[in-house]
Amino acid sequence: MREGYRIAVLGAGNIGTSIAKGLVQSGRFSPSRIVLARRRTHLLEEFKNQGFEITDDNLAAVASCDVLLIAVEPQRMNILLDEIAPAVDPERHRVISVVTGVLIRQIEERLGKAVSIVRAMPNTAIAVRESMTCLASNGTDDEALETARAIFNEVGKTLRLREEDMIAATALGACGIAYFLRAIRAASQGGIEVGLSAKNALLMATQTAKGAACLLAANGSHPENEIDKVTTPKGCTILGLNRMEHEGFSSALIRGITVSAEKAATLYSDGKQ
After folding, report:
1. Which of 45, 93, 98 is nearest to 72 (CA)?
2. pLDDT tens across 25-80, in order?
3. pTM > 0.90
4. I want to staple 94 with a disulfide (CB 3.0 to 4.6 A). Which of 24, 127, 144, 262 is the partner?
5. Which residues contact 237 (CB under 8 A, 6 or more apart)?
6. Which CATH number fits domain 7-161: 3.40.1280.10, 3.40.640.10, 3.40.50.720, 3.30.559.10?
7. Domain at 176-264, CATH homologous superfamily
8. Coil, helix or strand for 266?
9. Rounded-to-integer distance, Cα 127 and Cα 136, Å
């Protein structure tokens, strides 16, 4: 890709604007290089004030940009692809889709041309540059994958997967943000029950969760290795852990991830819309 390439976010809702925020926070992208497109542009006024270009014209966004980042809801995917297909130039454009459940071949078939496509699954922590983004490519152009890596490495970590693993990545990496947030909320509620103020309990739960994640990231260790360091015979930690397991903590989290994957696989239909 040429230096200073422009990015169109087609479907600038929560995840699309989170990506835009993260890219600007990285310092590598100015707001003027990012076009935010959605039907209800009045919801993008704050971004317009920050220097982003906003529009309700998808074709105009495609014409003015080099990377097309598609972030619409699955049920609107076919409508968008049909709309922009005439304007997509395989020689110029790189397509990145963050739409759940839509296969690369389905995008290619809908556009009706051989386009370089990368399927990406980030999460909303992208807004603070801490996303886990999984990538899969149609393999026609390594440049497209490298472009996607360059974009998403600025806002967290990336991992290339086989495309058949992307539904699992959606359940763990994207939906998983909500699961860990719910665990932090539950921990803070436990803190309140044993006497902490709501403010202090949430602060302690948040920082403790961050510390746990940082231990694993820094040491490359298994969670059980770190757990062993804080569990002593007849101690309070092992008592708490065993009670949580008795109440179904691990099994509930595992089942939540599996049912999310099952649902994610059904969100998109490649039939006529």
Report:
1. 98
2. 989 899 999 999 999 999 999 999 999 999 999 999 999 999 999 999 999 999 99
3. no
4. 144
5. 230, 231
6. 3.40.50.720
7. ProC C-terminal domain-like (1.10.3730.10)
8. coil
9. 21
| DSSP single-letter state for residue 100 | T
Q: What is each CA distance from 166 to 103, 161, 174, 202, in whole angstroms?
A: 9, 7, 10, 32
CA atoms of 256 and 237, how far apart (whole Å): 25
Tokens standing for residue 174: 């994207």
Angstrom distance (rounded) from CA 25 to CA 11: 20
- 67: its two tokens: 């990377």
Hey, how many other C-beta atoms are within 10 angstroms of the C-beta on 67? Answer: 23
Distances 215 to 18, 134, 205, 210 between C-alpha atoms, Å: 26, 22, 15, 9
- How far, in Å, CA of 207 to CA of 186, rounded? 14
Q: Domains of the chain: which residue ranges?
A: 7-161, 176-264
